[in-house]
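Sorry to interrupt, but I need a hand with the structure work. Can you supply me with one protein entry, sequence and fold together? No commentary is needed, just the two lines. Leave the record below and I will have a look.
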Amino acid sequence: MYDGFYNLIKKPFQLSADTDFFFNSAVHKRALAYMRYGLTQGEGFVVIIGKPGTGKTMLVKELVNNLNNDNITIGIMVSSQVSADDLLKIISATFGLPYDGEDKSTLLTRIERFFINQSMEGKRVLMIVDEAQNLPKDALEELRMLSNFEMAGKSLFQIFLIGQQQLGERLALPEMEQLRQRVVATYQLKPLNIEETKEYILFRLKKAGWNNSPQFDDEVFCKICDYTNGIPRLINTLCDRLLLFGYLDELTTINSFAVKKVIEDIEDESSLITEEFHDRAPTTMLNIDSNGSYEDRISLLEKMVIHLQDSLNKERALLRKAILLQLDMDTVYNDNH
C-alpha cells in the first residue's frame, strides 16, 4: 500500500524482529555489552529485563547473528507455563535429542552427555530463554540445577533469561536466592527518549529506502514519543498507521494534525474493543472473586485475555476490510476518470 506510494523498498515499521532494522541506541548498545560480558564469563545466568515492546527479541537475534557458532552451541526457547519435566523435554528437543516417553533421569543423563560431548569438541552450550517471565519457579530451579554441570572445573551450560518485569519480581523471591547468586550480569532495558525516538524513526525509514517522502515536521517526533512512551513496538505501530493515513490522504508531509488524527483513531478502536468486551463478557469474567483460589483467579484471567485477543482480531479484520474496500473504490474511481 503506502510503501509503493512513498517509493519505499520495504515496510519500515513492521512488527517482526528483523535485524536489518536493529537500532543500536545507547540503551540497546549497553544491553548487548552486558550480554557479551556474560558470554565471556562462560557460566551462570545473564538476565535482561524490559517492558513489552522494548526490543528484547531483537537484541537476542542481533546477539546470535554475531556470535561465533564454532565455539558456542546455541538453543533458543520461547517459554510458556511449563513444568520442570517439560522443560527438560523442551531443552532436549531444542538440541535435537530424543525425549518422547523418557523419564526424568534418562533425560538428565542424555542432556549431560550432550554437554560433555560439546565440551570435548571445544564448544559450550548456551540456552537463551525468551519470555522467561512465564517460567514457573520449579522450571527456573531446574535450569539452576543444569547450570551445575561441569567438567574439569569448567561450566558446560550457560543460560540467558530474557523477560518482562515479572521475571525480576520472581527472581527477587527468597526461594530464588541460589539462582540469584549465579547471575553474572543483569540489565534492564529502558524506553527511548525524544531524540532517540526521532533517530529511531528516521533510521528505519532510511533502511526502507526513504528519500524524504513523506517529510516529517519536527513536532511530530515529540508527539510520537509522548504517546508511545518511547517503546519501539508502539512507535512502529503508530508510525505504520501514520504512513497509511498519509497514503490514504495523499500527504507529502506528516504533521502534528496527522499524528493527532491517527492517535484518535487508535483510541476510538481501543474503546470500541473495550466496550464490546464488557458487553459480551460473562459476569463471572468481569467479577473475579478475590476470595477464590489462586488457580481459579488465574484461570478466569486467562479467559479474559483470550476473549480480548479474539475481540481485537475481529476489529483488526474489520479495519483491514474497510481499508481494502476503500482502495477498491479508489481504483474504480480512477479507472473511470
About this structure: The two ends are 21 Å apart (CA to CA). The longest strand covers residues 72-78.
